[in-house]
Each structure stands twice: as C-alpha cells, then as structure tokens.
C-alpha cells in the first residue's frame, strides 16, 4: 500500500510539472504572436490604429525588435548607404512618376526635407522604383492615401535600409491632397525606408510616439491618375477602407532632375 501511495504522489508531481510547462509554452506563444503583430506593422497606421488614434486612445508602444538593423534605427542612426542631407539642401527636384502608364508630375523640396529629398533623388537616379508596386490604398473620408515603392504585394521593406530624422511633419497632422510623404515603421523616427505615400484627398493622420510623417514634396500634375486608382476601390477580402488596390498598381518609372 505504501508503494502505491508513493507512486500516486510521484504521478501527481509529474502532472503538476507538466501543467506548469504547458502554461509556460502557451504564454510564450501568445507573447510571440503579440510581438509579431507589433513588429510587422510598417509605415502608415492601419485602419484600426487610425480609428483608435482618432478616438484619442493610446497606441501600443513598438515592441523591441530582434533585428539588429531595426534596433539600430531606433537609436537614431542611418544605414551606411544613406546619402547626406546636404546633397539636396536648398534644392528643388522636379520629375515624373508613371503609374500603370499614367504620368504624375512631382516636385520634391530639399529646403524643408533635405534628408528625404536626398534619399529619393538617389533612389530615382539608380532607377530603384522601376517595376515596384503600390500595394496599399486607403479610402476613408479623412484617410485617403496610395502607398508605393514596395517590392511585393505587401508593405514590407528592407530592414537594412532605414533613415531619419523626421522632417517637415505637419503641426496640425493634416496632409493636404497632393502631398507626397515618407512611409515608415510605426513609433520610429529613424524607420523611414524606400516607400512613400501620395495623399489624394485631404487626410488627417494622428502622430504616433515618434511624431508625424515627413512631407517631402507634392504632386504638380496628373492627380487624376491617382484618384482613378482610388475610385476603382480595394480588393475584395480586404478591409472596407484599407487594403490592396482592386487593380494592381505598378511604378513604370520614377525620375527626378
């Protein structure tokens, strides 16, 4: 009998230990899922984040990244291949962005956003944008942007290409129609990358913990090209006001001089 009681005690201890391990594994999985959700977000706020900000709610803080380059970006340093701001300071660059065969005239301002203008001038000189995509369209009444410059069908970007600081962010959080601004990782003033967004209706974007979004320039002609893309709507299966354009949008070319 004593042997049986000892066996039951041993089995009970084993079950309690296994339960503790199971709870720990489940908690770790939950934490990993939350971190993934927070770290994969790139550039402009999502529809839910935008709605929360509009309601005056606090957005969650950016989770620590396991990517060394992303961690470096958070400390306020640029990637090694980022051109110096003084290469564009005081200059105005004009050019053309071609989307699905439609021409959009653009102007970038190196006086108010010299670092951003330097980056985009360097990228266009290297024909970086030719063949890239505009994978995100928002169609809310006061949040209307087309986001461009991605290599694939989502807004992920190269974590090894990051730069800052933020420049020329609107004091009133309002981005007028025709604005060209820099997309970035949430809550990171040095999270700018290759992507940009074109505002096609007056838009209000509440700042996150890092601030607003760098306004680098404006559309000077061909705004109808962007509004036509927006009018076609969002791909079925996406959010009602934030998702992929119903017709894929490709950058044929982007040139500045």
UniProtKB/TrEMBL annotation:
InterPro entries from the entry?
Cyclophilin-like_dom_sf, Cyclophilin-type_PPIase_dom, E_coli_cyclophilin_A-like
- Compositional bias of type Low complexity: which residue ranges? 58-80
Q: Which Pfam families match?
A: Pro_isomerase
Q: Tell me which residues make up the PPIase cyclophilin-type domain.
A: 102-256
User: Which residue ranges are recorded for the region named Disordered?
Assistant: 58-81
Q: What is its EC number?
A: 5.2.1.8
Q: What is the lineage of its organism?
A: Bacteria, Bacillati, Actinomycetota, Actinomycetes, Micrococcales
Write the protein's name.
peptidylprolyl isomerase
The Gene Ontology terms for molecular function here are:
peptidyl-prolyl cis-trans isomerase activity
């Amino acid at each position: 009998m004593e042997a049986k009681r000892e066996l039951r005690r041993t089995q009970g201890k084993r079950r309690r230990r296994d339960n503790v391990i199971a709870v720990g594994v489940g908690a770790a999985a939950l934490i990993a899922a939350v971190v993934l959700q927070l770290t994969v977000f790139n550039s402009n706020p999502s529809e839910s984040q935008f709605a929360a900000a509009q309601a005056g709610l606090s957005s969650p803080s950016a989770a620590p990244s396991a990517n060394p380059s992303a961690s470096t970006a958070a400390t306020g340093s640029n990637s090694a291949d980022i051109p110096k701001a003084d290469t564009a300071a005081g200059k105005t660059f004009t050019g053309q962005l071609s989307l699905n065969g439609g021409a959009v005239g653009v102007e970038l301002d190196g006086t108010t956003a010299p670092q951003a203008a330097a980056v985009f001038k360097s990228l266009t000189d290297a024909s970086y944008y030719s063949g890239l995509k505009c994978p995100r369209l928002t169609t809310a009444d006061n949040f209307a942007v087309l986001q461009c410059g991605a290599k694939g069908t989502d807004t992920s970007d190269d974590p090894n290409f990051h730069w800052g600081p933020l420049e020329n962010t609107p004091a009133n959080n309002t981005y007028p129609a025709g604005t060209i601004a820099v997309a970035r990782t949430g809550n990171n003033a040095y999270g700018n990358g290759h992507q940009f967004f074109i505002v096609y209706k007056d838009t209000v974007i509440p700042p996150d913990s890092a601030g607003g979004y760098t306004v680098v320039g404006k559309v000077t002609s061909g705004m109808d090209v962007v509004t036509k893309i927006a009018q076609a709507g969002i791909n079925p299966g996406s959010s009602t006001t934030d998702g992929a354009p119903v017709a894929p949008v490709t950058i044929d070319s982007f040139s500045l001089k």
